[in-house]
Amino acid sequence: FSFKFHLSGTCAHLQTAVGLHRCHLNITGACSAIQKMTRVRVVDNSTLGNTPYHRPPKCIHVYNKSGVGKVGDKILLAIKGEKKKALIVGHRRPGPCMTPRFDSNNVVLIEDNGNPTGTRIKTPIPLILRKHEGEFSKVLAIAQNLV
Amino acid sequence: MAAVCGRFLEPAVVRGLAQASAARPGARCRYFSSSALLRANSGEPPKFQPPPKPVIIDKSKVVVERRFLSPEFIPPRGRKDPLKYYIERIDMIRRRKVLNIPEFYVGSILSVTTADPYASDKTSRFVGICIQRGGKGLGATFVLRNVIEGQGVEFCYEIYNPRIQEIKVLKLEKRLDDNLMYLRDALPEYSTFDVNMKPVPYSPNDEIPVNQLKVKMKPKPWSKRWERPYFNIQGIHFELPEEIMEEAQKLSQPWIKFDMLREYNTSELEKKIWNEVNEKLKK
Lengths: 147, 283
Description:
Chain A: InterPro entries: Ribosomal_uL14, Ribosomal_uL14_sf. The structure holds two protein chains of two kinds. By secondary structure, chain A is an alpha+beta fold.
Protein backbone atom coordinates (compact mmCIF):
# COMPACT_ATOMS: atom_id res chain seq x y z
CA PHE A 1 0.00 0.00 0.00
CA SER A 2 1.18 3.53 -0.57
CA PHE A 3 -0.19 6.17 1.73
CA LYS A 4 -0.39 9.84 0.97
CA PHE A 5 -2.02 12.27 3.33
CA HIS A 6 -3.31 15.81 2.87
CA LEU A 7 -1.16 17.89 5.16
CA SER A 8 -3.64 20.74 4.94
CA GLY A 9 -6.35 18.79 6.72
CA THR A 10 -4.22 17.62 9.61
CA CYS A 11 -2.08 20.64 10.46
CA ALA A 12 -4.56 23.35 9.52
CA HIS A 13 -5.53 23.81 13.14
CA LEU A 14 -1.88 23.83 14.14
CA GLN A 15 -1.13 26.49 11.52
CA THR A 16 -3.70 28.81 12.99
CA ALA A 17 -2.36 28.20 16.50
CA VAL A 18 1.30 28.65 15.64
CA GLY A 19 0.65 31.60 13.39
CA LEU A 20 2.11 32.08 9.97
CA HIS A 21 4.75 29.33 10.43
CA ARG A 22 4.10 26.36 8.16
CA CYS A 23 4.55 23.26 10.25
CA HIS A 24 6.23 20.51 8.33
CA LEU A 25 4.75 17.49 10.01
CA ASN A 26 5.82 14.40 8.19
CA ILE A 27 3.00 11.98 8.84
CA THR A 28 3.89 8.98 6.75
CA GLY A 29 1.54 6.06 6.70
CA ALA A 30 2.46 3.18 8.94
CA CYS A 31 5.57 1.54 7.58
CA SER A 32 4.30 -2.01 7.48
CA ALA A 33 7.14 -3.90 9.11
CA ILE A 34 9.68 -2.40 11.49
CA GLN A 35 12.83 -0.78 10.14
CA LYS A 36 14.97 2.26 10.93
CA MET A 37 12.99 5.34 11.94
CA THR A 38 9.72 3.51 12.64
CA ARG A 39 7.86 4.69 15.69
CA VAL A 40 6.97 1.72 17.86
CA ARG A 41 4.73 1.09 20.81
CA VAL A 42 6.28 -0.36 23.94
CA VAL A 43 3.92 -2.94 25.31
CA ASP A 44 5.30 -4.08 28.67
CA ASN A 45 4.95 -2.32 32.01
CA SER A 46 8.53 -1.06 32.34
CA THR A 47 9.05 2.52 33.58
CA LEU A 48 11.20 3.41 30.56
CA GLY A 49 8.49 2.39 28.17
CA ASN A 50 5.55 3.95 29.97
CA THR A 51 6.78 7.37 31.15
CA PRO A 52 5.67 10.06 28.71
CA TYR A 53 8.26 11.85 26.59
CA HIS A 54 7.86 14.48 23.89
CA ARG A 55 9.22 12.06 21.25
CA PRO A 56 7.87 8.59 20.52
CA PRO A 57 10.29 5.64 20.79
CA LYS A 58 11.92 5.01 17.41
CA CYS A 59 13.83 2.10 15.94
CA ILE A 60 17.41 2.96 14.97
CA HIS A 61 18.82 -0.42 14.01
CA VAL A 62 17.49 -3.87 13.16
CA TYR A 63 19.71 -6.88 14.06
CA ASN A 64 18.97 -8.65 10.83
CA LYS A 65 20.59 -9.32 7.45
CA SER A 66 17.89 -7.24 5.76
CA GLY A 67 16.98 -4.05 7.55
CA VAL A 68 13.35 -5.13 7.97
CA GLY A 69 12.30 -6.54 11.31
CA LYS A 70 9.54 -9.11 11.73
CA VAL A 71 8.14 -10.83 14.82
CA GLY A 72 10.98 -12.30 16.87
CA ASP A 73 13.71 -9.94 15.65
CA LYS A 74 15.81 -7.81 17.98
CA ILE A 75 16.05 -4.07 17.34
CA LEU A 76 17.76 -1.05 18.88
CA LEU A 77 15.36 1.56 20.16
CA ALA A 78 15.91 5.22 20.99
CA ILE A 79 13.75 5.98 24.06
CA LYS A 80 13.98 9.12 26.18
CA GLY A 81 17.40 9.92 24.76
CA GLU A 82 18.75 6.43 25.60
CA LYS A 83 19.54 3.41 23.47
CA LYS A 84 17.76 0.21 24.44
CA LYS A 85 17.40 -3.18 22.84
CA ALA A 86 13.91 -4.50 22.18
CA LEU A 87 12.10 -7.51 20.77
CA ILE A 88 9.41 -7.17 18.10
CA VAL A 89 6.20 -8.89 19.16
CA GLY A 90 3.82 -7.70 16.48
CA HIS A 91 3.65 -5.48 13.45
CA ARG A 92 1.05 -4.00 11.11
CA ARG A 93 2.34 -5.87 8.10
CA PRO A 94 0.35 -9.01 7.21
CA GLY A 95 2.66 -11.97 7.75
CA PRO A 96 2.34 -15.63 6.72
CA CYS A 97 -1.13 -17.18 6.85
CA MET A 98 -2.47 -18.18 10.29
CA THR A 99 -0.32 -15.57 12.04
CA PRO A 100 -1.87 -12.55 13.74
CA ARG A 101 -1.63 -9.06 12.30
CA PHE A 102 -1.73 -6.31 14.89
CA ASP A 103 -3.02 -2.76 14.54
CA SER A 104 0.17 -1.28 15.96
CA ASN A 105 3.89 -2.10 15.91
CA ASN A 106 4.46 -3.68 19.30
CA VAL A 107 7.79 -4.07 21.01
CA VAL A 108 9.04 -5.41 24.38
CA LEU A 109 12.10 -3.82 26.01
CA ILE A 110 14.94 -6.26 26.57
CA GLU A 111 18.41 -6.28 28.16
CA ASP A 112 21.55 -7.36 26.31
CA ASN A 113 21.33 -10.88 27.71
CA GLY A 114 17.69 -11.25 26.61
CA ASN A 115 15.95 -10.62 29.93
CA PRO A 116 12.85 -8.44 29.65
CA THR A 117 12.89 -5.10 31.47
CA GLY A 118 9.23 -5.14 32.46
CA THR A 119 7.37 -7.64 34.58
CA ARG A 120 4.08 -8.05 32.76
CA ILE A 121 2.78 -7.92 29.18
CA LYS A 122 -0.94 -7.40 28.86
CA THR A 123 -1.28 -7.12 25.08
CA PRO A 124 -1.62 -10.35 23.08
CA ILE A 125 1.63 -11.96 21.90
CA PRO A 126 1.80 -14.26 18.86
CA LEU A 127 2.44 -17.92 19.51
CA ILE A 128 5.18 -18.02 16.84
CA LEU A 129 7.62 -16.74 19.47
CA ARG A 130 7.52 -20.19 21.07
CA LYS A 131 9.46 -21.51 18.10
CA HIS A 132 12.68 -20.11 19.60
CA GLU A 133 11.76 -21.13 23.13
CA GLY A 134 15.33 -20.80 24.38
CA GLU A 135 15.84 -17.12 23.57
CA PHE A 136 12.38 -15.80 24.42
CA SER A 137 11.36 -18.06 27.28
CA LYS A 138 11.51 -15.25 29.84
CA VAL A 139 9.47 -12.90 27.64
CA LEU A 140 6.86 -15.61 27.10
CA ALA A 141 6.80 -16.27 30.83
CA ILE A 142 5.70 -12.70 31.61
CA ALA A 143 3.17 -12.60 28.74
CA GLN A 144 -0.43 -13.00 29.86
CA ASN A 145 -2.31 -13.29 26.56
CA LEU A 146 -1.01 -15.55 23.82
CA VAL A 147 -2.87 -15.30 20.52
CA MET B 1 -75.57 -26.25 8.00
CA ALA B 2 -77.34 -22.91 7.93
CA ALA B 3 -80.69 -24.65 8.14
CA VAL B 4 -79.61 -26.45 11.29
CA CYS B 5 -78.42 -23.31 13.05
CA GLY B 6 -80.98 -22.10 15.46
CA ARG B 7 -82.96 -25.33 15.44
CA PHE B 8 -83.68 -26.76 18.75
CA LEU B 9 -82.19 -30.25 19.05
CA GLU B 10 -82.74 -32.78 21.81
CA PRO B 11 -79.71 -33.39 24.06
CA ALA B 12 -79.54 -37.12 23.21
CA VAL B 13 -79.53 -36.45 19.49
CA VAL B 14 -76.88 -33.76 20.01
CA ARG B 15 -74.66 -36.12 22.01
CA GLY B 16 -75.06 -38.83 19.38
CA LEU B 17 -74.11 -36.49 16.59
CA ALA B 18 -71.12 -35.20 18.60
CA GLN B 19 -69.87 -38.78 19.06
CA ALA B 20 -70.35 -39.46 15.35
CA SER B 21 -68.35 -36.38 14.39
CA ALA B 22 -65.62 -37.30 16.86
CA ALA B 23 -65.41 -40.83 15.40
CA ARG B 24 -64.84 -39.48 11.88
CA PRO B 25 -62.80 -36.33 12.47
CA GLY B 26 -62.05 -35.73 8.80
CA ALA B 27 -65.66 -35.82 7.64
CA ARG B 28 -67.47 -32.54 7.42
CA CYS B 29 -70.35 -32.66 9.85
CA ARG B 30 -73.23 -31.05 8.05
CA TYR B 31 -75.87 -31.79 10.57
CA PHE B 32 -74.24 -30.64 13.79
CA SER B 33 -73.75 -27.13 15.05
CA SER B 34 -72.08 -26.12 18.26
CA SER B 35 -74.48 -23.29 18.81
CA ALA B 36 -77.28 -25.87 19.14
CA LEU B 37 -75.25 -27.59 21.90
CA LEU B 38 -75.06 -24.36 23.85
CA ARG B 39 -78.76 -23.88 23.47
CA ALA B 40 -79.38 -27.42 24.54
CA ASN B 41 -77.67 -26.79 27.91
CA SER B 42 -79.40 -23.51 28.82
CA GLY B 43 -82.93 -22.37 27.98
CA GLU B 44 -81.90 -19.00 26.53
CA PRO B 45 -82.12 -18.13 22.81
CA PRO B 46 -78.83 -18.93 21.00
CA LYS B 47 -76.32 -16.17 20.32
CA PHE B 48 -75.28 -16.07 16.69
CA GLN B 49 -71.83 -17.61 16.44
CA PRO B 50 -70.29 -16.90 13.08
CA PRO B 51 -68.73 -19.96 11.41
CA PRO B 52 -64.93 -20.35 11.87
CA LYS B 53 -62.85 -18.58 9.25
CA PRO B 54 -61.42 -20.97 6.65
CA VAL B 55 -57.65 -21.47 6.79
CA ILE B 56 -56.21 -20.88 3.30
CA ILE B 57 -52.91 -22.68 2.64
CA ASP B 58 -51.34 -20.95 -0.36
CA LYS B 59 -49.40 -23.83 -1.91
CA SER B 60 -47.78 -21.54 -4.51
CA LYS B 61 -45.75 -19.82 -1.78
CA VAL B 62 -43.96 -22.82 -0.32
CA VAL B 63 -40.91 -21.91 1.80
CA VAL B 64 -37.80 -22.90 -0.18
CA GLU B 65 -34.66 -23.89 1.72
CA ARG B 66 -31.94 -21.26 1.39
CA ARG B 67 -29.52 -22.07 -1.42
CA PHE B 68 -26.08 -20.93 -0.44
CA LEU B 69 -23.07 -21.53 -2.64
CA SER B 70 -19.81 -20.46 -1.03
CA PRO B 71 -18.24 -17.72 -3.17
CA GLU B 72 -14.96 -19.60 -3.60
CA PHE B 73 -16.69 -22.21 -5.79
CA ILE B 74 -17.55 -19.68 -8.47
CA PRO B 75 -14.63 -19.57 -10.92
CA PRO B 76 -13.29 -16.12 -11.82
CA ARG B 77 -13.79 -14.71 -15.29
CA GLY B 78 -10.95 -15.75 -17.54
CA ARG B 79 -9.74 -18.00 -20.29
CA LYS B 80 -8.53 -20.87 -18.12
CA ASP B 81 -9.71 -24.37 -18.85
CA PRO B 82 -12.77 -25.14 -16.69
CA LEU B 83 -11.18 -28.56 -16.03
CA LYS B 84 -8.79 -26.89 -13.60
CA TYR B 85 -11.70 -25.48 -11.57
CA TYR B 86 -13.50 -28.83 -11.74
CA ILE B 87 -10.51 -30.65 -10.26
CA GLU B 88 -10.20 -27.99 -7.56
CA ARG B 89 -13.87 -28.38 -6.71
CA ILE B 90 -13.43 -32.13 -6.26
CA ASP B 91 -10.65 -31.44 -3.74
CA MET B 92 -12.72 -28.79 -1.97
CA ILE B 93 -15.65 -31.18 -1.63
CA ARG B 94 -13.31 -33.87 -0.23
CA ARG B 95 -12.17 -31.45 2.45
CA ARG B 96 -15.75 -30.38 3.19
CA LYS B 97 -16.73 -33.99 3.83
CA VAL B 98 -14.14 -34.11 6.61
CA LEU B 99 -14.62 -30.64 8.09
CA ASN B 100 -17.99 -28.94 8.23
CA ILE B 101 -17.52 -25.45 6.78
CA PRO B 102 -20.70 -23.59 7.64
CA GLU B 103 -22.37 -20.87 5.68
CA PHE B 104 -21.14 -17.43 6.72
CA TYR B 105 -20.95 -13.94 5.30
CA VAL B 106 -18.83 -10.85 5.79
CA GLY B 107 -20.09 -9.40 9.07
CA SER B 108 -20.83 -12.67 10.86
CA ILE B 109 -19.00 -13.57 14.02
CA LEU B 110 -17.02 -16.81 13.85
CA SER B 111 -14.86 -18.83 16.18
CA VAL B 112 -12.04 -20.86 14.62
CA THR B 113 -9.98 -23.55 16.36
CA THR B 114 -6.67 -24.40 14.69
CA ALA B 115 -3.96 -26.91 15.42
CA ASP B 116 -0.88 -25.04 16.60
CA PRO B 117 2.35 -26.83 17.48
CA TYR B 118 3.47 -23.89 19.60
CA ALA B 119 0.39 -23.65 21.80
CA SER B 120 -0.06 -25.43 25.11
CA ASP B 121 -2.68 -28.17 24.44
CA LYS B 122 -1.79 -27.79 20.76
CA THR B 123 -4.98 -25.91 19.75
CA SER B 124 -5.63 -22.20 19.55
CA ARG B 125 -9.06 -20.60 19.36
CA PHE B 126 -9.83 -17.19 17.91
CA VAL B 127 -13.17 -15.38 17.84
CA GLY B 128 -13.77 -12.45 15.53
CA ILE B 129 -15.92 -10.75 12.94
CA CYS B 130 -15.32 -11.70 9.33
CA ILE B 131 -14.21 -8.54 7.53
CA GLN B 132 -13.22 -9.98 4.18
CA ARG B 133 -13.60 -13.13 2.10
CA GLY B 134 -11.05 -13.42 -0.66
CA GLY B 135 -9.53 -15.89 -3.07
CA LYS B 136 -11.10 -18.58 -5.20
CA GLY B 137 -10.77 -22.33 -5.11
CA LEU B 138 -8.58 -24.03 -2.52
CA GLY B 139 -6.75 -20.82 -1.61
CA ALA B 140 -9.88 -19.07 -0.42
CA THR B 141 -9.30 -17.03 2.75
CA PHE B 142 -11.30 -15.08 5.28
CA VAL B 143 -10.05 -12.47 7.71
CA LEU B 144 -11.32 -12.34 11.29
CA ARG B 145 -10.90 -9.25 13.41
CA ASN B 146 -11.20 -8.71 17.15
CA VAL B 147 -9.90 -6.27 19.73
CA ILE B 148 -8.21 -7.99 22.68
CA GLU B 149 -7.04 -5.89 25.65
CA GLY B 150 -7.26 -2.75 23.54
CA GLN B 151 -5.10 -4.20 20.77
CA GLY B 152 -6.72 -4.91 17.40
CA VAL B 153 -5.78 -8.36 16.08
CA GLU B 154 -6.58 -9.79 12.66
CA PHE B 155 -6.17 -13.37 11.52
CA CYS B 156 -6.23 -14.42 7.89
CA TYR B 157 -7.35 -18.06 7.72
CA GLU B 158 -7.35 -20.30 4.68
CA ILE B 159 -10.68 -22.12 4.57
CA TYR B 160 -9.22 -25.38 3.24
CA ASN B 161 -6.07 -25.39 5.37
CA PRO B 162 -5.78 -28.80 7.07
CA ARG B 163 -4.64 -27.12 10.30
CA ILE B 164 -8.14 -25.80 10.89
CA GLN B 165 -10.03 -28.11 13.22
CA GLU B 166 -13.36 -26.34 13.66
CA ILE B 167 -15.19 -23.34 12.23
CA LYS B 168 -18.23 -22.29 14.21
CA VAL B 169 -20.64 -19.49 13.40
CA LEU B 170 -21.55 -17.67 16.61
CA LYS B 171 -23.76 -15.06 14.94
CA LEU B 172 -24.87 -15.29 11.34
CA GLU B 173 -25.60 -11.90 9.84
CA LYS B 174 -24.76 -9.68 6.92
CA ARG B 175 -23.68 -6.07 6.92
CA LEU B 176 -24.31 -3.25 4.49
CA ASP B 177 -20.95 -3.85 2.75
CA ASP B 178 -19.00 -6.77 1.33
CA ASN B 179 -15.73 -5.57 2.77
CA LEU B 180 -15.42 -4.31 6.32
CA MET B 181 -11.78 -3.17 6.14
CA TYR B 182 -12.93 0.24 7.39
CA LEU B 183 -13.35 -1.29 10.85
CA ARG B 184 -9.59 -0.73 11.25
CA ASP B 185 -10.23 3.02 11.23
CA ALA B 186 -13.46 2.83 13.19
CA LEU B 187 -13.75 3.21 16.94
CA PRO B 188 -12.51 0.03 18.66
CA GLU B 189 -15.92 -0.68 20.26
CA TYR B 190 -17.24 -1.77 16.84
CA SER B 191 -14.61 -4.51 16.54
CA THR B 192 -14.69 -5.87 20.11
CA PHE B 193 -16.46 -9.16 20.54
CA ASP B 194 -16.59 -11.30 23.64
CA VAL B 195 -14.40 -14.38 23.27
CA ASN B 196 -16.83 -16.48 25.29
CA MET B 197 -20.00 -15.29 23.62
CA LYS B 198 -22.76 -17.85 23.24
CA PRO B 199 -23.79 -18.83 19.72
CA VAL B 200 -26.99 -17.13 18.54
CA PRO B 201 -29.35 -19.81 17.16
CA TYR B 202 -30.59 -19.50 13.60
CA SER B 203 -32.80 -21.70 11.44
CA PRO B 204 -31.73 -22.68 7.93
CA ASN B 205 -34.97 -21.40 6.39
CA ASP B 206 -34.98 -17.85 7.72
CA GLU B 207 -33.60 -14.98 5.72
CA ILE B 208 -30.22 -13.78 6.83
CA PRO B 209 -30.59 -10.62 8.95
CA VAL B 210 -28.82 -7.57 7.55
CA ASN B 211 -27.31 -5.43 10.29
CA GLN B 212 -27.99 -1.80 9.35
CA LEU B 213 -25.35 -0.57 11.77
CA LYS B 214 -23.56 2.63 10.71
CA VAL B 215 -20.13 2.73 12.23
CA LYS B 216 -18.48 5.84 13.73
CA MET B 217 -14.91 6.48 12.70
CA LYS B 218 -11.79 7.71 14.45
CA PRO B 219 -10.59 11.15 13.37
CA LYS B 220 -8.79 11.29 10.03
CA PRO B 221 -6.22 10.27 8.65
CA TRP B 222 -7.57 6.84 7.78
CA SER B 223 -5.70 4.05 6.03
CA LYS B 224 -7.88 4.53 2.96
CA ARG B 225 -10.16 7.41 1.99
CA TRP B 226 -13.36 5.56 2.74
CA GLU B 227 -15.61 8.49 1.84
CA ARG B 228 -14.69 8.13 -1.85
CA PRO B 229 -17.31 6.53 -4.14
CA TYR B 230 -14.72 3.98 -5.39
CA PHE B 231 -15.19 1.99 -2.18
CA ASN B 232 -18.97 2.50 -2.20
CA ILE B 233 -19.33 2.06 1.53
CA GLN B 234 -22.81 2.25 3.04
CA GLY B 235 -21.94 1.24 6.57
CA ILE B 236 -20.10 4.36 7.83
CA HIS B 237 -21.72 7.27 9.61
CA PHE B 238 -19.68 10.05 8.04
CA GLU B 239 -19.36 13.13 10.22
CA LEU B 240 -17.09 14.92 7.78
CA PRO B 241 -17.82 18.47 6.61
CA GLU B 242 -19.86 18.77 3.44
CA GLU B 243 -17.01 20.21 1.36
CA ILE B 244 -14.99 17.02 1.80
CA MET B 245 -17.98 14.85 0.87
CA GLU B 246 -18.60 16.95 -2.25
CA GLU B 247 -14.92 16.78 -3.22
CA ALA B 248 -15.09 13.02 -2.86
CA GLN B 249 -18.23 12.78 -5.04
CA LYS B 250 -16.36 14.56 -7.84
CA LEU B 251 -14.29 11.38 -8.24
CA SER B 252 -17.32 9.18 -8.83
CA GLN B 253 -17.46 7.23 -12.07
CA PRO B 254 -21.19 6.78 -12.79
CA TRP B 255 -20.55 5.27 -16.23
CA ILE B 256 -18.99 2.10 -14.80
CA LYS B 257 -22.34 0.43 -14.12
CA PHE B 258 -23.22 0.72 -17.81
CA ASP B 259 -19.93 -0.82 -18.94
CA MET B 260 -20.83 -4.06 -20.68
CA LEU B 261 -17.30 -5.44 -20.72
CA ARG B 262 -17.30 -5.52 -16.92
CA GLU B 263 -20.46 -7.62 -16.74
CA TYR B 264 -20.02 -11.14 -15.36
CA ASN B 265 -23.31 -12.95 -14.99
CA THR B 266 -22.76 -15.96 -12.76
CA SER B 267 -26.39 -17.07 -12.23
CA GLU B 268 -26.33 -20.04 -14.63
CA LEU B 269 -22.83 -21.07 -13.60
CA GLU B 270 -23.93 -20.94 -9.96
CA LYS B 271 -26.92 -23.20 -10.61
CA LYS B 272 -24.76 -25.80 -12.37
CA ILE B 273 -22.08 -25.73 -9.70
CA TRP B 274 -24.69 -25.84 -6.92
CA ASN B 275 -26.24 -29.00 -8.37
CA GLU B 276 -22.84 -30.58 -8.91
CA VAL B 277 -21.58 -29.74 -5.41
CA ASN B 278 -24.78 -30.89 -3.72
CA GLU B 279 -24.80 -34.24 -5.49
CA LYS B 280 -21.22 -34.97 -4.50
CA LEU B 281 -21.66 -33.85 -0.91
CA LYS B 282 -24.62 -36.14 -0.43
CA LYS B 283 -22.66 -39.21 -1.52
